[in-house]
Amino acid sequence: xxxxxxxxxxxxxxxxxxxxxxxxxxxxxxxxxxxxxxxxxxxxxxxxxxxxxxxxxxxxxxxxxxxxxxxxxxxxxxxxxxxxxxxxxxxxxxxxxxxxxxxxxxxxxxxxxxxxxxxxxxxxxxxxxxxxxxxxxxxxxxxxxxxxxxxxxxxxxxxxxxxxxxxxxxxxxxxxxxxxxxxxxxxxxxxxxxxxxxxxxxxxxxxxxxxxxxxxxxxxxxxxxxxxxxxxxxxxxxxxxxxxxxxxxxxxxxxxxxxxxxxxxxxxxxxxxxxxxxxxxxxxxxxxxxxxxxxxxxxxxxxxxxxxxxxxxxxxxxxxxxxxxxxxxxxxxxxxxxxxxxxxxxxxxxxxxxxxxxxxxxxxxxxxxxxxxxxxxxxxxxxxxxxxxxxxxxxxxxxxxxxxxxxxxxxxxxxxxxxxxxxxxxxxxxxxxxxxxxxxxxxxxxxxxxxxxxxxxxxxxxx
Length: 463
Description:
globular, 32% helix, eight-stranded mixed β-sheet
């Protein structure tokens, strides 16, 4: 009998297994596909491979403005696709090798049911039955479908399907202007595909700060992406090999491919026998220590619906490993209370977006009086040298305490810069705390510094 059974080998499950092994706690991971889950195999990693190609191709098209002559640049998408697959295989193979060297069982089986038996659980799969003292559910999520637009993998695509596409379409319509939809729209637009986005809400990536969303829409429209905001898709039909979409504004649009990106649904179709797992709208209900209503059963990652990001799942899993280390090895680890507001979110569009903490609207609602500082990349020397000056850094602080409560970045390398915001918010830093930090010159991070200085109207390079 293993001490811990982990159901799902994504960024929550496999990271937890490795940390448990480091603590000397035996675990087994049930993953019917390759380790790494959606993130490594069909999400974060393959899309970032495409983002690099798209951004590079976009820069090549601007090469003349840098004094470089580049003629007849073109995209060999089949080669792009093969490169993406090699990167995924290299990374996933590395995780699988770590499992082998650490002697962590990786069971390529589908868990069908879990049954409580005295002080243990019986996990039944499509092949065998196993026993464990603890269970960690890390089963992830999957793309939601629209009832009249079922995925067919050919013309109606999920985010997984589009990564399997080996040739560029002439025209792509993206239904859903969230993070995933906007990232793919930006990628294929830069690669020369005609792209339109249909979004039911008034703003793209609605969870972002409103000013950031508006600036993203401005950038995507300037790049040639047509936006249909406050618009729904009412019906779809196929005509001469193309998909015809009827929109709520009474217009029709056609496309060779349609990406449906309207959110993700939890995956947890395991049958619980002689015990009942509490869920809400399909998501597993957990407490602040990721415990479910069942004794010694935890849940982490997308299946909890807390914050559907890979690094959230990993951090949840690491905290669960600390809890189990205390319970099994009588360690005295201080258990971190995870504050979801300090977890950064990244959107790999062009321009990039990084955000952490409260938006200006939410901060105003919570604290009443707030301070807002902004600094544009157009006044940053490094950004000027890069030829990429679109966007700004916005920092928000509570007026009474001067504590930083939000940071939002749109522009060059925003997804890297936002780590600074994560550190500052995670350590509950104030404006005075940041004054003790020296930011290197010339760097993009100086825009972070000056946005914080602007909270007190002291940014040196801003009028």
